[in-house]
Design a protein that fits this description.
By secondary structure, the chain is α+β, with helices and mostly antiparallel strands. The chain is built from 18 helices and 23 strands. The protein has a domain at 185-225. The two termini are 37 Å apart.
Length: 586
Protein backbone atom coordinates (compact mmCIF):
# COMPACT_ATOMS: atom_id res chain seq x y z
CA UNK A 1 0.00 0.00 0.00
CA UNK A 2 1.28 3.40 -0.97
CA UNK A 3 0.17 6.35 1.16
CA UNK A 4 0.96 9.54 -0.71
CA UNK A 5 0.59 12.75 1.28
CA UNK A 6 2.07 15.01 -1.44
CA UNK A 7 3.91 12.69 -3.80
CA UNK A 8 3.68 13.29 -7.55
CA UNK A 9 1.60 10.53 -9.09
CA UNK A 10 4.01 10.52 -12.03
CA UNK A 11 6.50 8.90 -9.67
CA UNK A 12 4.06 6.12 -8.75
CA UNK A 13 5.26 3.57 -11.25
CA UNK A 14 8.83 3.58 -10.00
CA UNK A 15 7.61 3.40 -6.41
CA UNK A 16 5.27 0.50 -7.15
CA UNK A 17 7.89 -1.44 -9.04
CA UNK A 18 10.44 -0.90 -6.28
CA UNK A 19 7.88 -2.12 -3.76
CA UNK A 20 7.13 -5.19 -5.87
CA UNK A 21 3.55 -4.08 -6.45
CA UNK A 22 3.39 -3.50 -10.21
CA UNK A 23 1.07 -5.99 -11.86
CA UNK A 24 0.78 -7.84 -15.13
CA UNK A 25 -1.64 -7.63 -18.00
CA UNK A 26 -5.40 -7.79 -18.13
CA UNK A 27 -7.28 -11.06 -18.37
CA UNK A 28 -10.40 -11.59 -20.37
CA UNK A 29 -13.56 -13.47 -19.51
CA UNK A 30 -17.22 -13.56 -20.43
CA UNK A 31 -18.60 -10.13 -21.07
CA UNK A 32 -22.10 -8.90 -20.35
CA UNK A 33 -24.19 -5.97 -21.55
CA UNK A 34 -22.33 -3.66 -23.90
CA UNK A 35 -19.63 -6.07 -25.07
CA UNK A 36 -15.86 -5.85 -24.74
CA UNK A 37 -13.91 -2.71 -25.42
CA UNK A 38 -10.23 -1.93 -25.70
CA UNK A 39 -8.43 -1.70 -22.37
CA UNK A 40 -8.02 1.89 -21.19
CA UNK A 41 -4.34 1.78 -20.26
CA UNK A 42 -2.60 4.41 -22.36
CA UNK A 43 0.75 3.77 -24.07
CA UNK A 44 3.45 6.38 -23.48
CA UNK A 45 2.62 8.14 -26.76
CA UNK A 46 -1.08 8.56 -25.95
CA UNK A 47 -2.38 12.10 -25.42
CA UNK A 48 -2.95 13.23 -21.86
CA UNK A 49 -6.54 13.05 -20.68
CA UNK A 50 -8.31 16.38 -21.11
CA UNK A 51 -11.83 17.68 -20.48
CA UNK A 52 -14.34 19.02 -20.49
CA UNK A 53 -16.22 16.23 -18.78
CA UNK A 54 -18.92 16.50 -16.14
CA UNK A 55 -21.13 13.84 -14.58
CA UNK A 56 -23.52 14.58 -11.71
CA UNK A 57 -26.95 13.61 -10.43
CA UNK A 58 -29.01 16.43 -11.97
CA UNK A 59 -28.84 18.06 -15.43
CA UNK A 60 -29.10 21.57 -13.96
CA UNK A 61 -26.04 20.92 -11.82
CA UNK A 62 -24.15 19.45 -14.77
CA UNK A 63 -24.91 22.54 -16.85
CA UNK A 64 -23.69 24.79 -14.01
CA UNK A 65 -20.41 22.88 -13.99
CA UNK A 66 -20.08 23.01 -17.77
CA UNK A 67 -20.72 26.76 -17.74
CA UNK A 68 -17.81 27.24 -15.34
CA UNK A 69 -15.53 25.10 -17.54
CA UNK A 70 -16.53 27.14 -20.61
CA UNK A 71 -15.41 30.26 -18.75
CA UNK A 72 -11.98 28.72 -18.21
CA UNK A 73 -12.63 27.47 -14.70
CA UNK A 74 -10.85 24.53 -13.12
CA UNK A 75 -12.32 21.18 -12.15
CA UNK A 76 -12.53 22.38 -8.54
CA UNK A 77 -14.26 25.61 -9.66
CA UNK A 78 -16.85 23.53 -11.50
CA UNK A 79 -17.33 21.21 -8.52
CA UNK A 80 -18.19 24.21 -6.33
CA UNK A 81 -20.82 25.40 -8.80
CA UNK A 82 -22.23 21.88 -9.11
CA UNK A 83 -22.50 21.45 -5.33
CA UNK A 84 -24.24 24.81 -4.96
CA UNK A 85 -26.90 23.74 -7.49
CA UNK A 86 -27.22 20.17 -6.17
CA UNK A 87 -27.98 21.54 -2.71
CA UNK A 88 -30.98 23.30 -4.23
CA UNK A 89 -32.34 20.84 -6.81
CA UNK A 90 -31.34 17.59 -5.07
CA UNK A 91 -31.66 18.54 -1.38
CA UNK A 92 -32.51 14.99 -0.39
CA UNK A 93 -28.90 14.01 -1.06
CA UNK A 94 -26.39 16.80 -0.37
CA UNK A 95 -26.00 20.47 0.33
CA UNK A 96 -24.33 23.34 2.14
CA UNK A 97 -25.40 21.84 5.45
CA UNK A 98 -23.56 18.57 4.85
CA UNK A 99 -20.11 17.15 4.28
CA UNK A 100 -17.99 15.61 1.54
CA UNK A 101 -14.80 13.88 0.50
CA UNK A 102 -12.95 15.09 -2.58
CA UNK A 103 -10.12 13.55 -4.60
CA UNK A 104 -8.31 16.14 -6.73
CA UNK A 105 -5.79 15.36 -9.48
CA UNK A 106 -3.50 18.21 -10.57
CA UNK A 107 -2.31 17.67 -14.14
CA UNK A 108 0.56 20.17 -14.03
CA UNK A 109 2.26 18.80 -10.92
CA UNK A 110 1.05 15.22 -11.09
CA UNK A 111 -0.12 15.56 -7.48
CA UNK A 112 -3.18 13.78 -6.13
CA UNK A 113 -4.77 15.08 -2.94
CA UNK A 114 -7.77 14.14 -0.86
CA UNK A 115 -9.82 16.71 1.02
CA UNK A 116 -11.77 15.67 4.10
CA UNK A 117 -14.91 17.73 4.63
CA UNK A 118 -16.52 15.24 7.02
CA UNK A 119 -18.66 16.82 9.75
CA UNK A 120 -17.50 16.88 13.36
CA UNK A 121 -19.30 16.23 16.63
CA UNK A 122 -19.82 19.26 18.89
CA UNK A 123 -17.58 19.91 21.88
CA UNK A 124 -20.37 18.79 24.22
CA UNK A 125 -20.83 15.38 22.56
CA UNK A 126 -20.35 12.23 24.66
CA UNK A 127 -20.25 8.52 23.75
CA UNK A 128 -23.87 8.29 24.95
CA UNK A 129 -25.05 11.01 22.54
CA UNK A 130 -27.88 8.82 21.26
CA UNK A 131 -28.82 7.28 24.60
CA UNK A 132 -32.04 8.07 26.45
CA UNK A 133 -33.08 6.53 29.74
CA UNK A 134 -30.04 4.29 29.60
CA UNK A 135 -30.86 2.82 26.16
CA UNK A 136 -29.96 3.78 22.58
CA UNK A 137 -32.57 5.79 20.72
CA UNK A 138 -34.31 4.30 17.74
CA UNK A 139 -32.72 5.35 14.46
CA UNK A 140 -35.73 7.41 13.39
CA UNK A 141 -35.87 9.35 16.63
CA UNK A 142 -32.11 9.97 16.51
CA UNK A 143 -32.19 11.24 12.91
CA UNK A 144 -35.02 13.71 13.59
CA UNK A 145 -33.37 15.04 16.73
CA UNK A 146 -31.11 18.05 17.02
CA UNK A 147 -28.45 15.69 18.33
CA UNK A 148 -27.87 14.24 14.87
CA UNK A 149 -26.33 17.36 13.29
CA UNK A 150 -22.58 17.89 13.18
CA UNK A 151 -20.64 20.98 12.18
CA UNK A 152 -21.01 21.08 8.37
CA UNK A 153 -17.83 20.55 6.39
CA UNK A 154 -18.60 20.74 2.66
CA UNK A 155 -18.27 24.52 2.29
CA UNK A 156 -14.99 24.73 4.20
CA UNK A 157 -13.58 21.80 2.25
CA UNK A 158 -14.52 23.37 -1.09
CA UNK A 159 -12.91 26.65 -0.01
CA UNK A 160 -9.69 24.83 0.93
CA UNK A 161 -9.61 23.04 -2.42
CA UNK A 162 -10.35 26.31 -4.24
CA UNK A 163 -7.38 28.03 -2.62
CA UNK A 164 -5.14 25.31 -4.02
CA UNK A 165 -6.79 24.61 -7.38
CA UNK A 166 -9.19 27.44 -8.21
CA UNK A 167 -8.77 29.49 -11.35
CA UNK A 168 -11.92 31.66 -11.35
CA UNK A 169 -12.72 33.90 -8.38
CA UNK A 170 -14.86 32.30 -5.68
CA UNK A 171 -17.64 34.86 -6.07
CA UNK A 172 -18.13 33.87 -9.73
CA UNK A 173 -19.14 30.28 -8.94
CA UNK A 174 -22.60 30.69 -7.40
CA UNK A 175 -24.55 32.55 -10.08
CA UNK A 176 -26.54 29.60 -11.38
CA UNK A 177 -27.48 28.45 -7.88
CA UNK A 178 -28.64 31.94 -6.90
CA UNK A 179 -30.64 32.40 -10.11
CA UNK A 180 -32.36 29.01 -9.85
CA UNK A 181 -33.22 29.58 -6.21
CA UNK A 182 -34.60 33.06 -6.85
CA UNK A 183 -36.48 32.39 -10.12
CA UNK A 184 -37.37 28.77 -9.40
CA UNK A 185 -36.49 25.36 -10.81
CA UNK A 186 -38.59 22.50 -12.09
CA UNK A 187 -39.15 19.82 -9.45
CA UNK A 188 -37.79 16.56 -10.83
CA UNK A 189 -39.64 13.23 -10.54
CA UNK A 190 -37.12 11.87 -8.03
CA UNK A 191 -37.31 14.91 -5.77
CA UNK A 192 -41.11 14.82 -6.05
CA UNK A 193 -41.11 11.22 -4.89
CA UNK A 194 -39.26 12.13 -1.72
CA UNK A 195 -41.45 15.20 -1.13
CA UNK A 196 -44.51 12.92 -1.28
CA UNK A 197 -43.29 10.79 1.64
CA UNK A 198 -45.83 10.64 4.45
CA UNK A 199 -43.41 10.50 7.38
CA UNK A 200 -39.84 11.11 8.45
CA UNK A 201 -37.74 14.06 7.34
CA UNK A 202 -40.13 15.03 4.54
CA UNK A 203 -42.81 15.71 7.18
CA UNK A 204 -40.98 17.84 9.72
CA UNK A 205 -42.35 21.33 10.29
CA UNK A 206 -39.42 22.75 8.32
CA UNK A 207 -39.98 20.45 5.33
CA UNK A 208 -43.73 21.03 5.43
CA UNK A 209 -43.21 24.78 5.25
CA UNK A 210 -40.86 24.40 2.27
CA UNK A 211 -42.68 21.72 0.28
CA UNK A 212 -46.30 22.88 0.72
CA UNK A 213 -47.81 25.25 -1.83
CA UNK A 214 -50.10 28.17 -1.02
CA UNK A 215 -53.16 26.01 -1.75
CA UNK A 216 -52.09 23.47 0.88
CA UNK A 217 -50.93 20.77 -1.55
CA UNK A 218 -47.42 19.40 -1.87
CA UNK A 219 -45.14 20.19 -4.79
CA UNK A 220 -45.15 17.55 -7.51
CA UNK A 221 -42.98 16.83 -10.53
CA UNK A 222 -43.12 19.68 -13.03
CA UNK A 223 -43.96 22.38 -10.48
CA UNK A 224 -41.68 25.39 -10.13
CA UNK A 225 -40.12 25.59 -6.66
CA UNK A 226 -38.53 28.81 -5.42
CA UNK A 227 -36.22 29.16 -2.44
CA UNK A 228 -35.49 32.85 -1.73
CA UNK A 229 -33.72 31.96 1.53
CA UNK A 230 -31.27 29.79 -0.39
CA UNK A 231 -30.73 32.58 -2.94
CA UNK A 232 -29.83 34.93 -0.07
CA UNK A 233 -27.48 32.37 1.44
CA UNK A 234 -25.52 31.63 -1.73
CA UNK A 235 -25.27 35.36 -2.50
CA UNK A 236 -23.86 35.87 0.99
CA UNK A 237 -21.53 32.89 0.55
CA UNK A 238 -20.31 34.24 -2.80
CA UNK A 239 -19.61 37.68 -1.37
CA UNK A 240 -18.19 36.69 2.00
CA UNK A 241 -16.57 33.34 1.28
CA UNK A 242 -16.49 30.39 3.64
CA UNK A 243 -15.46 32.70 6.48
CA UNK A 244 -18.84 34.39 6.33
CA UNK A 245 -20.63 31.02 6.26
CA UNK A 246 -18.90 29.75 9.42
CA UNK A 247 -18.78 32.98 11.44
CA UNK A 248 -21.96 34.89 10.71
CA UNK A 249 -25.70 34.75 10.26
CA UNK A 250 -25.73 31.33 8.61
CA UNK A 251 -23.87 29.63 11.45
CA UNK A 252 -26.12 31.27 14.02
CA UNK A 253 -29.23 30.06 12.19
CA UNK A 254 -27.86 26.51 12.01
CA UNK A 255 -27.15 26.47 15.75
CA UNK A 256 -30.56 27.93 16.57
CA UNK A 257 -32.34 25.28 14.49
CA UNK A 258 -30.34 22.44 16.06
CA UNK A 259 -31.33 23.72 19.53
CA UNK A 260 -35.05 23.33 18.86
CA UNK A 261 -37.29 20.45 19.93
CA UNK A 262 -37.58 17.52 19.58
CA UNK A 263 -34.45 16.43 21.45
CA UNK A 264 -32.34 19.59 21.02
CA UNK A 265 -28.74 19.18 20.01
CA UNK A 266 -25.63 20.72 21.51
CA UNK A 267 -24.04 22.09 18.32
CA UNK A 268 -23.20 25.76 18.82
CA UNK A 269 -22.12 28.62 16.59
CA UNK A 270 -18.70 28.26 18.24
CA UNK A 271 -18.52 24.60 17.16
CA UNK A 272 -19.31 25.65 13.60
CA UNK A 273 -16.75 28.46 13.63
CA UNK A 274 -14.11 26.02 14.90
CA UNK A 275 -14.62 23.53 12.06
CA UNK A 276 -11.50 22.75 10.01
CA UNK A 277 -11.33 20.67 6.83
CA UNK A 278 -8.29 18.44 6.43
CA UNK A 279 -6.02 18.04 3.43
CA UNK A 280 -4.93 14.41 3.49
CA UNK A 281 -2.84 12.21 1.26
CA UNK A 282 -4.15 9.61 -1.15
CA UNK A 283 -4.26 5.86 -0.57
CA UNK A 284 -3.12 4.26 -3.81
CA UNK A 285 -2.96 0.57 -4.68
CA UNK A 286 -2.33 -1.23 -7.99
CA UNK A 287 -5.17 -3.25 -9.45
CA UNK A 288 -4.04 -5.32 -12.44
CA UNK A 289 -2.35 -2.75 -14.74
CA UNK A 290 -3.96 0.26 -13.06
CA UNK A 291 -3.47 2.32 -9.92
CA UNK A 292 -6.60 3.05 -7.87
CA UNK A 293 -6.53 5.98 -5.42
CA UNK A 294 -9.02 6.75 -2.65
CA UNK A 295 -9.15 8.96 0.47
CA UNK A 296 -7.72 7.59 3.73
CA UNK A 297 -9.87 7.16 6.89
CA UNK A 298 -12.31 8.26 8.12
CA UNK A 299 -13.35 7.45 4.54
CA UNK A 300 -13.76 3.73 3.91
CA UNK A 301 -11.74 3.85 0.70
CA UNK A 302 -9.26 1.40 2.23
CA UNK A 303 -12.03 -1.22 2.15
CA UNK A 304 -12.45 -0.80 -1.62
CA UNK A 305 -8.71 -1.29 -2.06
CA UNK A 306 -8.82 -4.37 0.18
CA UNK A 307 -11.61 -5.90 -1.88
CA UNK A 308 -9.72 -5.26 -5.14
CA UNK A 309 -6.58 -6.79 -3.64
CA UNK A 310 -8.55 -9.88 -2.62
CA UNK A 311 -10.13 -10.01 -6.08
CA UNK A 312 -6.68 -10.46 -7.59
CA UNK A 313 -6.34 -13.60 -5.47
CA UNK A 314 -9.73 -14.89 -6.70
CA UNK A 315 -9.64 -16.28 -10.26
CA UNK A 316 -13.42 -16.84 -10.44
CA UNK A 317 -14.06 -13.08 -10.41
CA UNK A 318 -12.28 -12.64 -13.74
CA UNK A 319 -14.85 -14.83 -15.53
CA UNK A 320 -17.00 -11.74 -16.15
CA UNK A 321 -20.53 -10.49 -15.56
CA UNK A 322 -22.29 -13.47 -17.17
CA UNK A 323 -20.73 -15.86 -14.68
CA UNK A 324 -22.55 -16.93 -11.54
CA UNK A 325 -19.18 -17.94 -10.17
CA UNK A 326 -17.84 -14.40 -10.60
CA UNK A 327 -20.80 -12.84 -8.81
CA UNK A 328 -20.61 -15.42 -6.01
CA UNK A 329 -16.92 -14.69 -5.49
CA UNK A 330 -17.63 -10.96 -5.51
CA UNK A 331 -20.28 -11.42 -2.80
CA UNK A 332 -18.04 -13.51 -0.56
CA UNK A 333 -15.20 -11.00 -0.78
CA UNK A 334 -17.63 -8.26 0.20
CA UNK A 335 -18.54 -10.15 3.38
CA UNK A 336 -14.88 -10.27 4.37
CA UNK A 337 -14.28 -6.65 3.43
CA UNK A 338 -17.30 -5.34 5.35
CA UNK A 339 -16.40 -7.35 8.45
CA UNK A 340 -12.97 -5.73 8.56
CA UNK A 341 -14.24 -2.25 7.67
CA UNK A 342 -16.95 -2.34 10.33
CA UNK A 343 -14.47 -3.46 12.96
CA UNK A 344 -11.49 -1.20 12.33
CA UNK A 345 -12.22 1.98 10.36
CA UNK A 346 -12.87 5.21 12.25
CA UNK A 347 -11.48 8.71 12.67
CA UNK A 348 -7.67 8.30 12.70
CA UNK A 349 -7.41 11.26 15.02
CA UNK A 350 -9.09 9.16 17.72
CA UNK A 351 -8.44 5.49 16.90
CA UNK A 352 -5.57 3.59 15.32
CA UNK A 353 -6.79 2.37 11.93
CA UNK A 354 -4.54 -0.47 10.63
CA UNK A 355 -4.52 0.76 7.05
CA UNK A 356 -1.18 -0.88 6.24
CA UNK A 357 -2.28 -4.13 7.86
CA UNK A 358 -5.62 -4.28 6.02
CA UNK A 359 -3.71 -4.09 2.73
CA UNK A 360 -0.76 -6.27 3.75
CA UNK A 361 -0.27 -8.84 0.94
CA UNK A 362 -0.09 -11.82 3.29
CA UNK A 363 -3.16 -10.69 5.20
CA UNK A 364 -5.08 -10.04 1.98
CA UNK A 365 -4.20 -13.49 0.65
CA UNK A 366 -5.26 -15.14 3.90
CA UNK A 367 -8.59 -13.32 3.88
CA UNK A 368 -9.25 -14.12 0.22
CA UNK A 369 -8.59 -17.80 0.91
CA UNK A 370 -11.55 -17.80 3.33
CA UNK A 371 -14.05 -16.70 0.71
CA UNK A 372 -14.94 -20.07 -0.87
CA UNK A 373 -15.81 -21.60 2.49
CA UNK A 374 -18.03 -18.81 3.84
CA UNK A 375 -21.58 -19.90 4.59
CA UNK A 376 -22.77 -16.76 6.37
CA UNK A 377 -21.53 -13.52 7.82
CA UNK A 378 -17.73 -13.26 8.00
CA UNK A 379 -15.83 -12.54 11.20
CA UNK A 380 -13.30 -9.71 11.14
CA UNK A 381 -9.68 -10.73 10.85
CA UNK A 382 -6.70 -9.47 12.81
CA UNK A 383 -4.54 -7.47 10.39
CA UNK A 384 -1.00 -6.50 11.34
CA UNK A 385 -1.23 -3.52 13.66
CA UNK A 386 -4.94 -4.06 14.30
CA UNK A 387 -6.40 -3.37 17.74
CA UNK A 388 -9.50 -5.49 18.23
CA UNK A 389 -12.10 -2.87 19.07
CA UNK A 390 -15.58 -3.37 20.43
CA UNK A 391 -18.65 -4.29 18.36
CA UNK A 392 -19.99 -1.69 15.99
CA UNK A 393 -23.65 -0.62 15.92
CA UNK A 394 -23.47 1.99 13.18
CA UNK A 395 -26.48 2.87 11.03
CA UNK A 396 -25.82 4.47 7.62
CA UNK A 397 -28.99 5.88 6.05
CA UNK A 398 -29.39 7.15 2.51
CA UNK A 399 -28.84 10.73 1.34
CA UNK A 400 -25.70 11.13 -0.76
CA UNK A 401 -24.55 12.14 -4.27
CA UNK A 402 -21.43 11.87 -6.42
CA UNK A 403 -19.91 14.07 -9.10
CA UNK A 404 -16.93 13.88 -11.45
CA UNK A 405 -15.29 16.77 -13.33
CA UNK A 406 -12.32 16.99 -15.71
CA UNK A 407 -11.26 20.40 -17.03
CA UNK A 408 -9.47 21.46 -20.22
CA UNK A 409 -6.05 21.17 -18.58
CA UNK A 410 -6.68 17.60 -17.45
CA UNK A 411 -7.27 18.39 -13.77
CA UNK A 412 -9.89 16.12 -12.25
CA UNK A 413 -12.23 15.97 -9.26
CA UNK A 414 -14.05 12.94 -7.89
CA UNK A 415 -16.30 14.01 -5.01
CA UNK A 416 -18.88 12.26 -2.87
CA UNK A 417 -21.14 14.60 -0.93
CA UNK A 418 -23.93 14.03 1.58
CA UNK A 419 -26.43 15.25 4.17
CA UNK A 420 -26.58 11.61 5.39
CA UNK A 421 -30.29 10.64 5.34
CA UNK A 422 -32.90 11.79 2.84
CA UNK A 423 -33.27 15.53 3.58
CA UNK A 424 -30.71 15.05 6.36
CA UNK A 425 -32.28 15.65 9.75
CA UNK A 426 -35.36 17.23 8.16
CA UNK A 427 -34.44 20.57 9.73
CA UNK A 428 -33.72 23.64 7.62
CA UNK A 429 -31.70 26.77 8.25
CA UNK A 430 -30.85 29.58 5.81
CA UNK A 431 -32.69 27.77 3.01
CA UNK A 432 -30.96 24.38 3.18
CA UNK A 433 -31.34 21.10 5.04
CA UNK A 434 -29.04 20.24 7.93
CA UNK A 435 -27.12 17.00 8.06
CA UNK A 436 -27.81 14.13 10.44
CA UNK A 437 -24.24 12.95 10.03
CA UNK A 438 -23.68 12.13 13.69
CA UNK A 439 -25.98 9.13 13.30
CA UNK A 440 -23.08 7.66 11.31
CA UNK A 441 -21.41 7.03 14.66
CA UNK A 442 -21.98 3.75 16.44
CA UNK A 443 -25.08 4.04 18.62
CA UNK A 444 -23.50 1.55 21.03
CA UNK A 445 -20.18 3.01 22.22
CA UNK A 446 -18.91 0.00 24.19
CA UNK A 447 -19.35 -3.73 24.60
CA UNK A 448 -20.14 -5.31 27.99
CA UNK A 449 -16.47 -5.54 28.99
CA UNK A 450 -16.00 -1.82 28.34
CA UNK A 451 -14.00 -1.95 25.10
CA UNK A 452 -14.75 1.05 22.88
CA UNK A 453 -16.08 0.77 19.33
CA UNK A 454 -13.73 2.31 16.76
CA UNK A 455 -16.61 4.48 15.55
CA UNK A 456 -17.91 5.57 18.97
CA UNK A 457 -18.99 9.20 19.45
CA UNK A 458 -16.49 11.70 20.85
CA UNK A 459 -16.29 15.48 20.98
CA UNK A 460 -14.70 16.86 17.80
CA UNK A 461 -14.61 13.42 16.17
CA UNK A 462 -15.54 12.68 12.57
CA UNK A 463 -17.84 9.70 12.05
CA UNK A 464 -16.67 6.88 9.83
CA UNK A 465 -17.90 7.25 6.27
CA UNK A 466 -18.53 4.81 3.44
CA UNK A 467 -17.93 7.61 0.95
CA UNK A 468 -14.93 6.65 -1.16
CA UNK A 469 -14.43 8.77 -4.31
CA UNK A 470 -11.99 7.13 -6.72
CA UNK A 471 -9.27 8.37 -9.09
CA UNK A 472 -7.76 5.83 -11.52
CA UNK A 473 -4.24 6.22 -12.93
CA UNK A 474 -2.17 4.29 -15.43
CA UNK A 475 1.22 2.79 -14.56
CA UNK A 476 2.90 6.05 -15.56
CA UNK A 477 0.85 7.88 -12.93
CA UNK A 478 -1.33 9.66 -15.49
CA UNK A 479 -5.04 10.28 -15.12
CA UNK A 480 -7.22 7.55 -16.60
CA UNK A 481 -10.53 7.94 -14.84
CA UNK A 482 -12.70 8.90 -11.90
CA UNK A 483 -15.62 7.09 -10.28
CA UNK A 484 -17.89 7.14 -7.28
CA UNK A 485 -21.38 6.53 -5.96
CA UNK A 486 -23.79 7.29 -3.16
CA UNK A 487 -25.45 4.41 -1.37
CA UNK A 488 -24.75 4.44 2.39
CA UNK A 489 -22.70 1.37 3.36
CA UNK A 490 -23.40 -0.09 -0.10
CA UNK A 491 -21.13 2.56 -1.65
CA UNK A 492 -18.24 0.14 -1.21
CA UNK A 493 -20.01 -2.59 -3.16
CA UNK A 494 -21.16 -0.18 -5.87
CA UNK A 495 -17.72 1.33 -6.40
CA UNK A 496 -16.07 -2.09 -6.45
CA UNK A 497 -18.61 -3.40 -8.98
CA UNK A 498 -17.96 -0.46 -11.29
CA UNK A 499 -14.18 -0.75 -11.03
CA UNK A 500 -14.12 -4.51 -11.63
CA UNK A 501 -16.61 -4.21 -14.52
CA UNK A 502 -14.63 -1.46 -16.26
CA UNK A 503 -11.03 -2.35 -15.42
CA UNK A 504 -11.26 -6.13 -15.32
CA UNK A 505 -14.26 -7.18 -17.42
CA UNK A 506 -13.66 -4.45 -20.02
CA UNK A 507 -17.21 -3.10 -20.15
CA UNK A 508 -18.07 0.39 -21.39
CA UNK A 509 -18.70 2.63 -18.41
CA UNK A 510 -22.45 2.97 -18.91
CA UNK A 511 -22.82 -0.80 -19.32
CA UNK A 512 -20.82 -1.30 -16.13
CA UNK A 513 -23.09 1.07 -14.21
CA UNK A 514 -26.19 -0.61 -15.65
CA UNK A 515 -25.17 -4.02 -14.30
CA UNK A 516 -27.20 -5.31 -11.36
CA UNK A 517 -26.03 -4.37 -7.91
CA UNK A 518 -25.18 -7.10 -5.39
CA UNK A 519 -24.45 -6.17 -1.76
CA UNK A 520 -23.26 -8.79 0.73
CA UNK A 521 -22.80 -7.32 4.20
CA UNK A 522 -23.48 -9.79 6.98
CA UNK A 523 -25.40 -12.96 6.15
CA UNK A 524 -27.73 -11.76 3.39
CA UNK A 525 -27.49 -10.82 -0.29
CA UNK A 526 -29.24 -7.59 -1.26
CA UNK A 527 -29.61 -7.03 -4.98
CA UNK A 528 -31.38 -5.38 -7.87
CA UNK A 529 -33.24 -8.64 -8.25
CA UNK A 530 -35.11 -7.56 -11.39
CA UNK A 531 -31.83 -6.79 -13.21
CA UNK A 532 -30.37 -10.24 -12.79
CA UNK A 533 -31.28 -12.56 -15.70
CA UNK A 534 -33.19 -15.64 -14.61
CA UNK A 535 -30.39 -18.00 -15.64
CA UNK A 536 -27.87 -16.02 -13.60
CA UNK A 537 -30.18 -15.95 -10.57
CA UNK A 538 -30.55 -19.71 -10.82
CA UNK A 539 -26.78 -20.14 -11.01
CA UNK A 540 -26.33 -17.95 -7.95
CA UNK A 541 -28.97 -19.88 -6.02
CA UNK A 542 -27.16 -23.13 -6.80
CA UNK A 543 -24.11 -21.63 -5.12
CA UNK A 544 -26.03 -20.56 -2.02
CA UNK A 545 -26.53 -16.95 -3.07
CA UNK A 546 -30.25 -16.29 -2.71
CA UNK A 547 -31.02 -12.73 -3.75
CA UNK A 548 -33.34 -10.43 -1.83
CA UNK A 549 -34.35 -6.90 -2.81
CA UNK A 550 -31.66 -4.39 -1.86
CA UNK A 551 -32.70 -2.68 1.37
CA UNK A 552 -30.09 0.09 1.29
CA UNK A 553 -29.89 3.29 -0.76
CA UNK A 554 -29.53 2.42 -4.42
CA UNK A 555 -26.52 3.38 -6.47
CA UNK A 556 -25.90 6.66 -8.22
CA UNK A 557 -22.65 5.89 -10.01
CA UNK A 558 -21.01 8.66 -12.02
CA UNK A 559 -17.66 8.55 -13.74
CA UNK A 560 -15.55 8.05 -16.83
CA UNK A 561 -12.45 6.35 -18.21
CA UNK A 562 -10.04 7.75 -20.84
CA UNK A 563 -10.11 5.34 -23.78
CA UNK A 564 -8.99 5.00 -27.35
CA UNK A 565 -11.86 4.41 -29.73
CA UNK A 566 -12.42 4.42 -33.46
CA UNK A 567 -12.14 8.22 -33.61
CA UNK A 568 -9.28 8.64 -31.17
CA UNK A 569 -8.95 9.20 -27.43
CA UNK A 570 -12.00 10.41 -25.53
CA UNK A 571 -13.92 10.06 -22.29
CA UNK A 572 -16.11 6.99 -22.00
CA UNK A 573 -18.49 8.28 -19.35
CA UNK A 574 -21.69 7.26 -17.69
CA UNK A 575 -24.42 8.25 -15.26
CA UNK A 576 -26.37 5.67 -13.29
CA UNK A 577 -29.83 5.20 -14.76
CA UNK A 578 -31.20 4.58 -11.26
CA UNK A 579 -31.03 8.36 -10.72
CA UNK A 580 -31.50 11.48 -12.84
CA UNK A 581 -27.90 12.32 -13.65
CA UNK A 582 -26.18 12.86 -16.98
CA UNK A 583 -22.60 12.68 -18.24
CA UNK A 584 -21.46 15.33 -20.73
CA UNK A 585 -18.35 16.21 -22.66
CA UNK A 586 -19.63 19.50 -24.10
Amino acid sequence: MIHLPHRSVRALTAVLVAAGLALGGCGGGALGTGGPVAGPVAPVAAPAARGPFVAAANPLAVEAGMAVLREGGSAVDAAIAIQAVLGLVEPQSSGLGGGAFMMAYDAASGQITSYDGRETAPAAATPELFYENGRPLGVGDAVLSGRSTGAPGAVAMLAMAHRAHGRLPWHALFGDAERLARDGFIVSPRLAGFIAATRGQARTRWADAYFTKADGTRYVAGDVLRNPAYAETVAELAAGGAEGFYNGRIAREIAATVAQEPRPGALTAEDIAAYQPIERGALCRPYRVYVVCVPPPPSSGVAVLQLLAMAEQTPHIHAGPDSAGAWTAFAQLQRLMYADRDRYVGDPGFVRVPVQGLLDPDYVAARAALAPGLTGAAEPGTPPGGVFSGPDATHEPAGTSHLVVVDAQGNAVSMTTTVESVFGSGRMAAGFFLNNQLTDFSFTPTRPDGAAAANAVAAGKRPRSSMSPVIVLDRQGRLLGAFGSPGGPSILAYNAKALIAVLDWGLPVQAAFDLPNLVARGDGFGADTDRFPEALRAGLAERGVTLSPNASENSGLHGAIWRQGATGWSWDGGADDRREGVARTQ
